[in-house]
Specification:
Elements: E1 14-18, E2 28-34, H1 36-39, E3 52-55, E4 61-68, E5 78-85, E6 93-94, E7 118-121, E8 127-131, E9 137-142, E10 149-156, E11 162-171, E12 174-181, E13 198-204, E14 212-218, E15 229-233, E16 236-243, E17 255-261, E18 263-264, E19 271-272, E20 288-290, E21 296-299, E22 328-329, E23 338-358, E24 375-382, E25 387-390, E26 403-421, E27 433-445
Antiparallel strand pairs: 1-2, 3-4, 4-5, 5-6, 7-8, 8-9, 9-10, 11-12, 12-13, 13-14, 15-16, 16-17, 18-19, 20-27, 21-23, 22-27, 23-26, 23-27, 24-25, 24-26
Length: 464
């Protein structure tokens, strides 16, 4: 598990959780379940990526695990190994000790990253394996030995937005494939930002397809992506996945979540209904001067490029090592001289200060990448004059990775606009990015978050 502020997959071993009642909240934790190099002598330590355990036709348990192959000469060193045990808790031995069962050079060459295996034991005891990531998904039938390909792999390219994390299962004669999808955009049913993923799914009439996309079953969670595991247990269906909801959680410091899966059996094939996620009770609201969470937003570059997320501006979160969707940003191949963001409230409110937390990867004066703006200022909307009026104040020089504070005489308005003059080297302009923009009321009050799916108006027009 990565330490806070570390953007890397620090996963030296697999852990296991066990329960006899998923609804009880009581689990047995095996924190040191298995390390890759303890069972696969051909694997390097660490990189214990997403694995799956299934019970084979011989009643033994098989672990399909992506690990890094030691000494690999392949372009990508990830490979899939298979371990076997008489118990799901081990001990485990390599079911194919000569090496991985899948790599870029074995048993047939491929050019994908070989991770995220998922396995189905069908009703007739035939075995099917799928794996893949970065938009590439492959499937194949296995021999009864659980490790040898039976026929040639198939490529799956009909599951809309497939990114990674496939999970195959069967219900009432229909095959289902759940997966992390990231078809992004302002009108996407999956996700606005490409780094985030929903869990989507498709169906098929046979285990190797063809697959038909059916929709979204889990909206994006607090971590950028998620990985489903879906099973039936004691007559009910559950999905296990991960998020960043735990204390000190993050995109690379994830926690496990389990929720019920429900079905619409009135349609054919039966549809998976949108999962209602279980969340911990929110903390008691604390009075704050920052009214930004109650604002709707629009920006000069709306719709915002899919690598960014405009809602990051007023989510109350500043991260030590943000990913692009943790910020609002303006990068494009040709950045303009000026950019702006508007906050809009439903009624006139008083403001006498503001704070902006800029992010960047280039220094001031740069004409490339993302740099602190050359200058910035605030404006408020005057309903009587129907125009934007600059707010007189001593604006500090924009500094990255800290709040830039400004105080001013109280104004009453429904809309504030932050205007940014882009950094330049005299030839081109850099982009602007910010993790957070706070709009400060004169005294602390309780704030209710707005529906940020509804954009603000660039001219402060009232919402309908």
């Amino acid at each position: 598990m990565a330490e806070p502020g570390v953007n890397d997959f620090i996963m030296p071993e697999w852990q296991m959780l066990e329960t006899s009642d998923p609804k009880s909240g009581k689990w047995t934790h095996y924190p040191h379940f298995l390390k890759p190099d303890d069972v696969f002598k051909w694997a390097t330590p660490g990189r214990a990526y997403a694995a799956q355990i299934v019970q084979g036709p011989d009643k033994r348990f098989y672990l399909y695990a992506p690990v890094m192959q030691q000494g690999s000469t392949n372009k990508d060193g990830f490979a899939i190994g298979v371990a076997v045990s008489d118990s799901p808790t081990g001990p485990w031995v390599d079911a194919h000790p000569s090496g991985p069962v899948i790599s870029q050079s074995y048993p047939v060459a491929n050019d994908i990253q070989n991770i995220d295996p998922t396995v189905l034991i069908d009703d007739d005891q035939r075995v099917y394996l799928y794996w893949g990531t970065f938009g590439r998904l492959k499937g194949v039938e296995l021999e009864k030995d659980m490790v040898t390909f039976k026929g040639k792999p198939v490529d799956v390219n009909t599951l809309t937005g497939f990114f990674e994390a496939p999970w195959i299962f069967k219900r009432k004669g229909t095959y289902y494939m759940a997966y992390a999808g990231n078809k992004a955009g302002p009108d996407s049913e999956c996700t606005e930002a490409v780094y985030y993923a929903c869990i989507a799914y498709g169906t098929a009439k046979s285990p190797l397809g063809p697959w038909t996309y059916r929709g979204v079953m889990l909206d994006p969670v607090s971590s950028t992506t998620s990985h489903p595991g879906i099973v039936e247990y004691k007559g009910e269906w559950y999905i296990a996945y991960h998020n960043a909801d735990a204390k000190n959680g993050g995109h690379f410091r994830r926690s496990v979540a389990v929720d019920k899966v429900t079905w619409d059996d009135t349609v054919s094939p039966p549809a998976i209904e949108l999962v209602e996620t279980t969340k911990a009770p929110p903390p008691a609201p604390v009075p704050t001067r920052n009214l930004a969470p109650a604002a709707r937003i629009v920006a000069s570059n709306s719709p915002v490029p899919v690598q960014y997320w405009i809602r990051a501006l007023n989510d109350g979160k500043v991260r030590e090592a943000p990913l692009p969707p943790d910020t609002w940003g303006t990068w494009s191949p040709n950045n303009p001289k000026q950019q702006w963001v508007v906050y809009q409230w439903e009624q006139g409110l008083k403001f006498n200060g503001s704070r902006i937390y800029f992010w960047g990867d280039q220094p001031a004066g740069s004409g490339i990448g993302v740099a602190p703006p050359k200058a910035w200022h605030l404006e408020y909307w005057s309903d009587s004059d129907r125009k934007w009026t600059p707010i007189a104040a001593q604006y500090p020089t924009a500094t990255l990775n800290t709040f830039n504070d400004v105080a001013f005489e109280t104004v009453t308005t429904r809309c504030l606009r932050a205007v940014f003059e882009a950094s330049t080297d005299g030839k081109t302009y850099a982009a602007v990015a910010a993790q957070e923009w706070e709009a400060l009321y004169p005294k602390p009050v309780l704030v209710e978050a707005a529906d940020t799916n509804i954009p603000a108006s660039a001219t402060c027009a009232p919402s309908e």
